[in-house]
Amino acid sequence: MAEAAHQQPELVILQDAAQLAQAAVNEFRTAAQSAITQRGRFTVALSGGNTPRSVYSMLASECRESLDWRKIFIFFGDERHVLPDDPQSNYRMARESLLSRVPLPEQNIFRVRAELPAQQAAEDYENALRGFFQLATGAFPRFDLLFLGLGGDGHTASLFPGSAALSETSRLAVANWVEKLRIFRITLTFPVLNAAAQVIFLVSGADKAGIVHEIFTKPQAAYPSQSVCPRNGRLLWLLDRPAAGMLGESSNPGSARS
Ligand code: 6PG
After folding, report:
1. In a 3-state reduction of DSSP, which class is residue 29?
2. For residue 249, what pLDDT is reported?
3. Kindly report the CA angle at 227 between 231 and 25, in degrees rounded to 5?
4. Residue 202, phi then psi, degrees to nearest 5
């Protein structure tokens, strides 16, 4: 089969964090309705950190009744190696802001069991992915939607600069030692991120302006987030104006660039 042409990344700049959240909710709703209509289900991997919290909260408020949550299946792009009720847990953040506020069957949530030893947690998560997506050996799951964030060092999910997971080409999920944090993280790997039908980066705040400028002006810089390029899917960057503050003329709200 001919290699699908990479779609050009899209960049949309929103006035502020609230409008970024609204744009992300709109994208989620559209993707979910389309996937459920076409294939009877919607698979999404949530990102962690702070930025998505407002997106998930707005999603719960706006889409509680308007989406068929029985057909929505929730995964995670990565997880910290902590207990699920730890304040650092991405699962806890998602449960508080979204999962506990919508009529989502418990069996539709595939959290990383980060209470296990890190390698075992990654294997367990990988087995859950293989089982749900009924993957043949060597195949990768194709998420309908995958939310990602951007760290100040250019990491995304838990694919940090200089970490071993960057070179993983066959595993779906791995335990990745992050030296600067002195902790393990469990993360999806690039082959999974790049198999997605749609990847949306959510980037907010002036503290991200520098790394955003690097990402968009130095393609040879090789930040981990620059390796996210869906083979046959859409790549959308949703930035608020502060995060896009160093992008020059394109830093106008609502301006889209591809
Ligand atoms: C995590 C995320 C990570 C995050 C970025 C941005 O587990 O922390 O997966 O990749 O998206 O670090 O985090 P903020 O949204 O908090 O800036």
Report:
1. helix
2. 66
3. 75
4. -115, 115
pLDDT of residue 255: 52
The tens digit of pLDDT for each residue in 31-56 reads: 999 999 999 999 999 999 999 999 99
**End-to-end Cα, the chain, rounded Å:** 26
Q: What distance in Å separates the CA atoms of residue 100 and residue 153, rounded to the nearest whole number?
A: 32
Alpha helices in 118-244 (DSSP H): 118-133, 190-193, 209-217
- State the pLDDT at residue 1: 45
Q: How many CB atoms lie within 10 A of CB 190?
A: 21
Token code pair at residue 103: 């009529």
Q: How many CB atoms sit inside 10 A of residue 21's CB? A: 25
β-pairing, 198-203 vs 145-148, is: parallel
Q: Which residues of the chain have pLDDT under 70?
A: 1-6, 249-258
**In whole angstroms, what is the distance from residue 95 CA to residue 79 CA?**
13
Q: Which pair of structure tokens corresponds to residue 256?
A: 């889209």
Instruction: Output the residue whose Cα is nearest ligand 1's atom 12.
Output: 151
Report CA(1)–ligand 1 centroid distance (Å): 36
What CATH number labels 48-204+211-247? 3.40.50.1360
Taking the C-alpha atoms of residue 148 and residue 174, their distance in angstroms, rounded to an integer, is 17
Q: What is the Å distance from ligand 1's center to 149 Cα?
A: 5
Determine the pLDDT at residue 248. Answer: 80
Residue 213, CA distances (Å) to 15, 207, 248 in order = 17, 11, 9
How many angstroms does the Cα of residue 103 sit away from the middle of ligand 1? 26
